[in-house]
Design a protein that fits this description.
The structure is a single chain. With about 325 residues, the protein is α+β, with helices and mostly antiparallel strands. The chain folds into three domains: about 80 residues, Ribosomal Protein S8, Chain: A, domain 1, CATH 3.30.1370; about 150 residues, TATA-Binding Protein (2-Layer Sandwich), CATH 3.30.310.210; about 70 residues, Ribosomal Protein S8, Chain: A, domain 1 (2-Layer Sandwich). The strands form three sheets. The protein has a six-stranded antiparallel sheet with strand order 2-3-1-10-12-11. A three-stranded antiparallel sheet has the order 4-6-5. It has a three-stranded antiparallel sheet with strand order 7-9-8, with helices on one face. Helix 5 packs antiparallel against helix 6. GO terms for molecular function: RNA binding.
Length: about 325
């Protein structure tokens, strides 16, 4: 097996298909710049180009370990996010359109997109505030608009955010356990937002797709919950190993127990070496790299990598939401 192939790997990540066009950019310029800067190849599903085609959220990133992680982070940073709330009926006596003075002021002050969206079935008009997922002004602009429309009642108003998750992963996300995973219940408890999957959504707000997940709460709560929700999403790392490095069943069980990672071995079509597929959640990306290093017998990577024998001695029983990782994630989000 060529050494060059050994150095390369592929990420498969969940990016809402509704955001693919934004990530790609006009004439592909945005994604091309990321590929050029990170020396990776990024593939978006071809079927999404067809209006009636089957939609897929899965995006593939191929390159070296360092480069695919850089590309993943860059894609996450440019993801758009929209917040939606109902405009008070008493405000509809005004002509609320794209040129509404309040909307123009908020666009200019906060650098976000603000649009009115009527819902024909009920006659309601919603306000859509759109920005980037890591843009602090998104929550600030939404809070300003709610205050302008509702005054002293503004604290009672909830906003919603819609994201898309492949249907086969809904059960996966809903059954993660707080003892070892980043789970939905813990995010709801921490942020006080509500996360609803299609089976629990009462379709009164025009959300009809089977892939849609709705996050609701205050603007700050929803923005925070959405960032944490994305860290829950499944991520797959695929790489090649020579026959002499093929992990045993005991190795696979050990990696699952110590790193919280699922490992699958597949025979390559050319039958030279094996294809290893390791899967976890995005917050656990570093451990995917650690699993790869362990399987390949590498002594170092970006983090300090311990051999399997050393991991046996790791007696840290802290759960994800108790210390270390969770406190870092949450403090980072709270400061934004």
């Amino acid at each position: 097996m060529h050494t060059k192939n050994m150095e390369r790997a592929t990420f498969k990540i969940e990016i809402p298909f509704t955001d693919h066009a934004h990530c790609i950019g006009r004439q592909g310029n945005q994604i091309q710049s990321i590929m050029l800067a990170t020396d990776t190849h990024i593939h978006f599903p071809d079927g999404n180009r067809e209006p009636n085609g089957t939609k897929s959220n899965q995006v593939s990133i191929t390159g070296t370990i360092t480069s695919i992680e850089q590309a993943r982070k860059r894609i996450r940073d440019i993801l758009p996010m929209s917040l939606k709330f109902l405009i008070s009926p008493r405000e509809l006596i005004h002509i609320i359109n794209d040129d509404y003075p309040l909307f123009k002021y908020v666009r200019r002050r906060y650098g976000v997109i603000v649009l009115p969206r009527p819902y024909a079935k009920t006659g309601d008009v919603y306000c859509i505030v759109r920005g980037l997922i890591n843009q602090p002004e998104l929550a600030e602009a939404t809070e300003y608009l709610i205050q302008a429309f509702y005054g002293f009642e503004s604290s009672l108003i909830k906003v919603t955010c819609q994201t898309e998750v492949s249907e086969q992963y809904h059960g996966y996300l809903q059954t993660r356990q707080q003892s070892k995973d980043m789970c939905i219940a813990a995010i709801e408890q921490y942020t006080h937002a509500t996360i609803q999957f299609p089976t629990t959504i009462i379709n009164t707000n025009g959300y009809g797709r089977r892939t849609s997940v709705i996050i609701s709460g205050s603007p700050t709560q929803v923005c925070q919950a959405r960032k944490l929700f994305d860290l829950c999403l499944p991520i797959i790392l695929t790489f090649e190993v020579p026959i002499d490095k093929e992990p045993t069943r005991a190795d696979i069980a050990h990696i699952k127990d110590k790193l919280n990672i699922t490992t699958i071995l597949r025979t390559r079509k050319d039958k030279i070496g094996k294809l290893v597929i390791v899967q976890s959640q995005e917050y656990n990306t570093d451990q995917l790299f650690r699993a790869r290093s362990i399987i390949l017998g590498l002594s170092e990577i970006n983090n300090n990598i311990l051999p399997i024998s050393s991991i046996n001695n790791n007696n840290n029983k802290n759960t994800l939401f108790d210390l270390n990782l969770s406190s870092t994630i949450f403090s980072d989000l709270s400061s934004k």
